[in-house]
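Amino Acid Chain and Its Fold in Token Form
===========================================
Structure side: the spatial fold of the chain, written down as a series of whole-number tokens.
Position: the record begins directly beneath this header, with no further notes in between.
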Amino acid sequence: PMALQWTLTIPTLNRIAFLIETIRCALQQTRPPAEIVVVDASVNWEQHYALARSEFGSAWDRVRLVYRGAEVRSLTCQRNQALRLATSEIVFSLDDDIYLYPDAAEIIMGVYEAD
């Protein structure tokens, strides 16, 4: 079976503590994402980016982090912006407070690859 890559996209607004935990759960997956794309509508999104970057340090050597300010402060627009930035075959689009079980991606990707 062909091995597919997955991207996690996350729209967020002023919820950095939740976002950090969502990212932590993604990075701890038994099958980590190829990339994490965050579209942040917070006024201080650059500070949130710096925090996410420093919080997980060397993890970003293995998983690509794409962190952008929102073009439009709208959940739907942020999701679409993130989708445009994603490069994997499969995209998980989650809210900033969704904490995946460690094997969630492995199970889901197994379904896609078995098809």
